[in-house]
Amino acid sequence: MQIIHLTFRIILTISIVLISFLSIQEVDIESKIKILDKFVHFFCFTYLTAISWLSRIFDKEFLVYVIVLAYGILIEVVQKYVPYRSFEFLDIFADFLGILGGIILIKIFKNFYPNY
What we know:
Layout: H1 2-23, H2 34-55, H3 61-80, H4 89-112
Helix pairs in contact: 1-2, 2-3, 2-4, 3-4
């Protein structure tokens, strides 16, 4: 089981580095495609929530959710100070909904693998 946790921790680390890097890159999005940005936030945070839980870094599930949301808020704060990016509350809301999506995935996973 240790090797599985280690593998998920490596995946989580790579994911956080990649998402952090991409979050400060300049993006040229037309206003029509802006809604897709919210879906990207939703799916990224669903993924981050699930991977964070699977990595078993924290003993308490609630702590995983709080830290993933704090990471999303941190990204938005950093984007406020990047000249070509902006802070958006809707992004944080999409992150929160993604965390809820991750919670649903975790509940489904627990039904199939209750001893994980």
